[in-house]
Structure formats: structure tokens, C-alpha cells
Amino acid sequence: MTAALSMDTIEAAEPLVQARNVHKAFGEVEVLKGIDLDVSPGEVVVVLGPSGSGKSTFLRCINHLEAIDRGSIVVAGEQIGYSLHNGRLNKLPSRAIAVQRRQIGMVFQQFNLYPHMTALQNIVEAPIGVHKQNRKEATELAMELLARVGLTHKADAYPRQLSGGQQQRVAIARALAIKPKLMLFDEPTSALDPELVGEVLATMRDLADRGLTMIVVTHEIGFAREAADRVVFMDGGIIVEQGRPDDVLGNPQHPRTRAFLSRFI
Amino acid sequence: MISNNRTVASPPKGDAEAAFRDVANAHKPFRTDRWLLWGITLLVAANFLWIVAHNENFGWPTVAQWFTEETILRGLYVTLGLTVVAMTIGVAIGLLLAIARMSNDRLASSLAGLYIWFFRGTPLLVQLIFWYNLSTLFPEISLAIPFGPTLASWNTNDLITPMTAAIAGLALNEAAYMAEIIRGGLLSVDKGQIETTEAFGMTRARALWRIIIPQAMRSIVPPTGNQLISMIKATSLVSVIAMADLLYSVQAVYNRTFEVIPMLMVAVIWYLFITSILNVGQGFIERYYGRGEIGSTAAKKQEKVAVAEISAMAPEGSK
């Protein structure tokens, strides 16, 4: 659905994510050197780039898993980790940051399911414990989500009894269970065996079609081509090039984008 | 297709040979040396037991006579009660210390560090005697604002009985060790798990309680079992502050009857009996926290099918 929207309609909407001049360094190493990015509601943005380009770090800055050094990131009107009060920006304590993060879902490269809980328990943990839903509703929604990722029969399985692809699909269901406004995917297929990548990408494509706002850091060019509204190419801590998938992937303007893409063809 | 071709290609005679070569029918070799070693070990053990049983100096009739005597059982209750109370308080304070030690708050982590440094660095026996003689240092204990007025005050001798001195000494000492054990357990949990709880907007307390501690338990339980067993034996130290525990009760008897060895055998058998029960209990707890691990019995029962499916699947690369 969203894929069919033209760029003009997307740009007209109030952006859900607004990143301005984002800088981040780990010690001496400058990882992000001024990132500007707007993501509109319902938009699927795929971030591509070689390893070390800063794309994963940027994603983790969006929900403040990493604190940025300079610039600002606003998600759904909230600057995560800070509060702006009478023109004064204050750092927030961890409890308040936790509250701000509750509208953002995240899927990790290593799945990070809770190993001591079954698939179903993994999914209902945040809705019941953090969002204070009642158990019955949360369980119903969880079963619905498990059905959507095709794992109803694995509800009572522990993560270690699932294949990597199944674990990642449970992790996606877990992130969806909090009804997020924004979903962040941090290389969701990089830790998977090649034959298991397809099932996870299919699940993600389904979410994209349902109009969920997604920022996906990945190496899957095929997914970018089919599911993305916009492809962002990062290298050396800056956005080198961005645009529609056909343009960026089919006719890259920047030599670094061309060099990167040539490895996949 | 490929496997089909292969069956066709191999001659029928090969099938017969393959049946013989089926490892499921392989015989275990008879190992004479192993049997011999078993035999010798059992023989030596039996002989040792025979000698011990027939040595009159052990005074087995006396052991049997005193084993369930009331004073001994009362001492046993004190030992068990002290162990349970001191261990519970020790684990609770230890947990708080571990969390304080790991927090980003400089004040909390250095205070916890100081506590651990002091209580691990001095002998338990000395700490017990200190608590017991607290009144000589501070005749009165009062609740007051620092350098300000006193709010309430107690006579130290009223507060510190042998019982409270024993509990304070054992529990506070135990807390220092448990703090390090728990900290080690918390550190063993994958960083990704902590990150996930953050990303899902969990408060730190909830993340600890629901996600981090249950996973840390796998590495906390075995050394804690160790601590519990050494705590049972450490309670025997309280006999120096006139606390009537198992060892003290036994001593009280042999000081009168001079049957030192038989009475110590009574204590030894009781200590061994309690630790054996604890070992069994620890096994159950470890199995509980091992759920979700492939090969754990709890998981096996529930998910036999799932495991079978996985092993039938292509090799799992990531884990």
C-alpha cells in the first residue's frame, strides 16, 4: 500500500522521526558526522551501507540506546532522553526515558528473546508489565501476532527450541505487541542462515504493506528494492545518497554507492 | 533423488553388510581392568566400614543413644534456624549490595565496595565476638540526627543477645560474599538482554526482577548452595558466644561425660545429613532455572516434538 504512495504525499505529512545534525563519537572515533533524516508516518526507510558506516549506531540513537553528542532526534514529538521546558533542554532520568521509549518497537540482530520465557511469555511481557494491559487481552493479541508470523504452534516453545528464523519472527511479534508507532530493525537477518532469511523478510514485507512506519538497517538489497519507500545509503558517518529504491539502487549517483552496490550484482 | 540413486547403485550384498555394520548393534567390550578397579575399591571401602563399625572407641551405642536426645535436637533446631535466618538476610542484603556495586551512582557503588572490603577482609570469628561485645564499644545505641538531637536510645546489652549477635555476625558477613556471587551472576547475563529491556521501556527494577535475575540465577545457584553449606558449618562458630547450636550442645554433653568422639560423631552425622538434603534441593532449583535450555528435563517434557523438529532441520548456524 504505502509503496504505492508517491514521494510528494509522504513529504507533505508531518514527519514521525526528525533527526538533525546528529553527531556521535566512541572515544576518538567519530561514527556519525552530521545526519539529517526525516521519516514520515507509514514510510518504510531502508538504510544501506558498508559495515562501519554508522548505520546501526544511528538506528540505536533513535531510541536513545546510544546517547548522541550533538544535534537532536525527535520521535513523535518527543526528544528521547530529554525534555524541553521553557526553552531549556534537560536530561531525563532513566525512568522517564523508559516511558518515552514505549512507542518504539525494536528488533535486534541477535533476536534477544528472553531465553527463560516461552514465545508467548516473551510477547506478553511488555504489554502486561510495561503497558499494563490485562493478561487476557494481551494473550489474545499475542496469539494473533503469532498467527501473523506463522508460529501459532510454537507459542509454548522456549527460544532455544526454535530455529533462528522462528526466533526472529517471535521477536518481531514481541515488538509489534506494544503497538509501536515506529519499528526499528537492526540488521534483522544478518545472524540467520541463508535459507532462513526469506521467512523473516516475508514477515517484514507484510508489515510494510500494512502501513507500519519502519526504519530497517540491512544488507538485503532485494528487500530494499521491493519493500522500501526510500533507500538511504550511508558511508563514513554521513548520508551519501537517498531516494526511491529504483533511483538509488538502479541508477546510483555517488561513486561510493556504486562501489557498494556493485558487490551485490 | 540422490539417495535413491545411491541405493540402486549399491549391490544387494552391501545391504547385508550394512546391517552388520549398524552401530546400533555394536557390543561394548568387556573391560577387565575397570572391573578389577571397582572390585578393589569396594573391597577397601567395605573393609574400612568394618573397621570403623567394630572400633569400640567410636562408641556407636553412645552415638545411637544421644542421636535423637532432646538437647541435641534443640541444638540442631538452633543451627538450622540460624542458617535459614542468616542466609535469608545475607542474600537480601547481598542482592542490594550487588545492585549498588554495579550502579552508575558513584556514591552507592563505593559504599557497597567499602562494605564488601571490610566484611570479607576480617575473620567471621572476630566479627561475631565484636557484635557480642558491642556494648563495651557503644554502651548505648541511639537514633539521632548527625551532630543533632537524639530521637531514641537503647541499652546495647538489651539489644545484643547471643541470638542477635549471631544473626548480625553471620548475616552481615554472608551478605558480603553473596554480593560478589550475585554480581558475578548479573554480569554473566548477555548485554543484549539488558539492552532489550531498555528498548522496551522497562524500568530498571522490573528488568532486573523479570529478565536479568532469572537468567543470572543459573550461575548464582551453584555457588550459593556452596555458601549455604558452609553457612551451616559456620554456625558452629557461634558456640564461642554461648549460643546453644548443635556443636555447642554436643560439647555440653561431652564436657560432662568425656565421650568426646561419640558425641562429635553425633554432630558429624547430623551435619552430613543436612548437607545431603540440601544437595538434593539444589539439584531441583538448578533444574528449574535451567528451563529453556535444550536438554533440560523441564523443557524436554514440554517440547519433545519441537526438539525433534529442530534436529531434523538444517544445521543451526547462529547458536
Automatic annotation (TrEMBL), chain B:
Residues 76-279 form the ABC transmembrane type-1 domain. The chain crosses the membrane at residues 35-53, 76-100, 112-132, 234-254, 260-281. It is found in: Cell inner membrane; Cell membrane. Keywords: Amino-acid transport, Cell membrane, Membrane, Transmembrane, Transmembrane helix, Transport. GO terms for molecular function: transmembrane transporter activity. PROSITE patterns: ABC_TM1. It is a multi-pass membrane protein. GO terms for biological process: amino acid transport. The complex is composed of two ATP-binding proteins (GltL), two transmembrane proteins (GltJ and GltK) and a solute-binding protein (GltI). Belongs to the binding-protein-dependent transport system permease family. HisMQ subfamily. This is Glutamate/aspartate import permease protein GltK.
